[in-house]
Design a protein that fits this description.
There is one protein chain. Helices cover about 25% and strands about 25% of the residues. The chain is built from eleven helices and 16 strands. The strands form three sheets. Strands 11-10-9-12-13-14-15-16 form an eight-stranded mixed beta sheet, with helices on both faces. A six-stranded antiparallel beta sheet has the order 1-2-3-4-8-5, covered by helices on one side. The chain has a two-stranded antiparallel sheet with strand order 6-7. A hairpin with a 2-residue loop joins strand 13 and strand 14.
């Protein structure tokens, strides 16, 4: 079934987005799982079948027994022909119905909804939990997208055209200890072309408490590599996640040349400086994240920050990213909390999407920090 065909037809898209199990097969529209009452007053499910070449044709086909009222008598208002027929080599129907409203049907949505309502009403009366809107998972069987199943969220929100700005992006996430994992969680839900994960460490027990999801004891006992663990987890949704089980060092920096955007999520300034300097030299845009948390009077305080750069704006980096690992560095402490890692990731994703034209960007800042104690966001390094 072509999801692109459905996406380009507002009637079919609306049916799918509202939860109908629709399928296009050989010029026919099939709507599966239509509940109805049979002559024994039992609830069954059938399939509505409509042609797709003429909306003026008010007749619809049905695979199943004759739908009945709650007392087991046939619904007379829709009766037409009660003979089986073969529509094509994959579709056989048992009967057809006719119910034409004044003025006919204006679109396929109205046609399908009217017949579905008429046929399923008695079944819903007998069992209010019965529905034709099952929201059944729709796999991407035609390999039309980067996802294992169709992104009906973007479709329902009508933001597919906006999200399409991400489709050609190759993304790298360097470091998956906390913030990087949350960034992956969010990037994996976008239609980017490829996601590359870089980390040479194992996924340990402490990581589970500051990362998305809920790792099982079996997961931890297997002592997986971080990139392998997250690749397996998020490949259930996104098809093109690539694991690189090593750290980014000088000898492999060139691998980043192919990327369109890089998220730098490392906790050592020397590595941070090496990577960001190289990305500037080759013109690859990036966001570098960091959080600094300290204990003060038995409470936690600190800040999270995102420093971003593009080919056009990177002159602020010498004042934001340093090569020394100093105890005085606000972002060098090793206290990491799940909600702060998640918040840091969200700020980074928002900036990435602003740069790509997904969100409005009135500030055009390239360095922002959120201060926990005063609950304020400070935007600096604005591009003129």
């Amino acid at each position: 079934m072509s999801q692109q065909l459905i996406n380009h037809n507002p009637d079919l898209k609306r049916l799918r987005d509202e939860g109908y199990e629709i399928e296009i097969r050989g010029g026919y529209l099939l709507i599966h799982h239509i509940p109805y009452v049979d002559q024994n007053k039992q609830i069954q499910v059938g399939v509505l079948v409509s042609t797709l070449d003429n909306i003026q044709d008010h007749v619809i086909f049905f695979t199943g027994e004759n739908p009945c009222e709650i007392d087991g008598t046939v619904i007379t208002a829709i009766q037409h022909i009660n003979n089986s027929s073969v529509l094509n080599n994959t579709i056989t129907v048992n009967r057809s119905f006719s119910n034409k409203p004044n003025g006919g049907y204006q679109n396929y949505y109205e046609k399908i909804k009217r017949y579905a309502d008429l046929i399923s009403a008695p079944a819903k009366y007998l069992d209010p939990s019965v529905t034709e809107k099952t929201f059944k998972v729709i796999p991407d069987s035609g390999n039309e997208t980067v996802f294992q199943y169709i992104d009906t969220n973007s479709s329902r929100a009508n933001i597919e055209v906006i999200n399409a700005k991400l489709e050609r992006q190759k993304i790298a996430i360097i470091g998956l200890g906390g913030t990087g994992a949350y960034i992956l969680d969010l990037v994996a839900k976008t239609p980017v072309k490829e996601i590359h994960l870089y980390d040479g460490d194992s996924f340990d027990q402490h990581n589970a408490f500051r990362s998305p999801g809920a790792a099982s004891m079996n997961d931890l006992c297997e002592n997986p590599r971080k990139v392998s663990y997250y690749q397996k987890l998020y490949s259930s949704m996104h098809k093109y996640i690539h694991a690189h089980d090593y750290y980014v060092r000088e000898e492999n920096l060139k691998e980043l040349d192919q990327m369109d955007y890089v998220f730098v999520c490392v906790d050592r300034n020397a590595a941070r400086k090496l990577i960001t300097d190289y990305l500037v030299s080759v013109g690859v845009a990036f966001s570098d994240v960091g959080l600094g948390v300290n204990v003060v009077d038995d409470k936690l305080t600190g800040a999270v920050r995102v420093t971003s750069a593009t080919r056009e704006k990177n002159d602020h980096l010498p004042f934001r990213i340093f090569s020394e690992d100093s105890d005085n560095n606000e972002y060098a402490t090793n206290i990491q909390i799940a909600e702060l890692n998640a918040l840091n990731a969200i700020f980074a994703i928002l900036k990435w999407k602003k740069i790509l034209g997904i969100y409005v960007d009135l500030e055009n800042e390239h360095h922002s920090s959120y201060s926990i104690g005063v609950s304020k966001i400070f935007n600096e390094d604005v591009k003129a």
